[in-house]
Specification:
Length: 291
């Protein structure tokens, strides 16, 4: 059976696994990302992972923007890879076909083909985690945009009331308001104590603490603004939402859908909403372009 190597490259860890034609994952390994010699690290991991003659291709998902030629224009937390043609570099080192795509786009491909979006012609995947991102899949193909920025929806401005920038984002960008890290920072200011993660915001909302109820209510409305804008632009059959913040979906998900219906005309009310189904969408989706 043909096998492929999938890599999930993050700023903290790099994960690598072997995936076969049936999308079965095996031999999953993780190690710390080497900031200074990342290319050498990837080549070593690929050689250690692959069985000569069996591996047909390599798929890599990264937290950044990749153009049509496989060149990285922006990557968070791994500046040494900016402006690197990673696809060509790894193909030259391994002799195998290599695909490098945004990690949100990889998850979008997997959910559209194998998960909650399976069977739909037009799927928009949104990840709400420490950041916000996603990808648009139409007729089974990822739509990357002219320069690879399609799906970088965390920069979508949803509020004109925010005056401060969050980590370089334009004031009012949804990632700076409603992503996990932003919720944690804003919640800490509102409650007067240091929160460790967004889960504490959701826990407080479940307990009825006013600051947290208000914050998650705003999150629901802001996400709806973003989703309505996407619907007006590409009118997907279904939105699939994933990411770590979906563990707190009971605090915002139904409100978000209600706001969406208020903001859109009847013709868009048939848009589906579903929660992501796959445990490893990033790894699975990374290899789809090289199948």
């Amino acid at each position: 059976m043909k096998e492929y190597i999938a890599i999930d490259l993050g700023g903290t860890n790099v994960r690598i696994a072997t995936i076969n034609e049936q999308f079965e994952i095996k031999d999953l390994h993780k190690e710390a990302t080497g900031q200074n010699a990342i290319l050498s690290q990837l080549v070593r991991l690929i050689r250690e992972q692959g069985k000569e003659g069996q591996v047909q291709g390599i798929g890599i998902g990264i937290p950044g923007v990749v153009d049509k030629e496989g060149k990285i224009h922006y990557i968070s937390n791994i500046p040494g890879l900016e402006n690197v043609g990673l696809e060509k570099e790894l193909t030259d080192h391994t002799g195998l076909p290599v695909s490098v795509i945004n990690d949100g786009s990889a998850a979008a491909l997997a959910e559209a083909r194998l998960g909650a979006g399976k069977g739909y012609e037009s799927v928009y995947y949104v990840t709400v985690s420490t950041g916000i991102g996603g990808g648009y899949v139409y007729q089974g193909k990822l739509i990357p945009g002219a320069a690879g920025y399609a799906g970088e929806i965390g920069g979508t401005v949803v509020s004109r009331n925010q005056k401060e920038s969050f980590r370089g984002l334009y004031p009012g960008a949804i990632e700076g308001i409603s992503a996990g890290d932003a919720l944690t920072e804003r919640g800490s200011r509102l409650c007067g104590r240091t929160l460790a993660h967004a889960g504490e915001v959701f826990d407080a909302a479940r307990k009825g603490e006013g600051w947290a109820v208000s914050l998650t209510g705003q999150m629901a409305q802001d996400l709806a603004v973003m989703l309505a804008g996407i619907s007006f632009a590409v009118n997907p059959d279904i939105f699939v939402l994933g990411g770590g913040c979906m563990k707190g979906a009971d605090c915002f998900y139904d409100k978000m859908k209600a706001y969406y219906l208020e903001m859109t005309p009847e013709g868009l009310h048939g848009t589906g909403f579903a929660r992501a189904e796959l445990e490893e969408p990033g790894l699975l989706g990374a290899v789809i372009p090289v199948l």
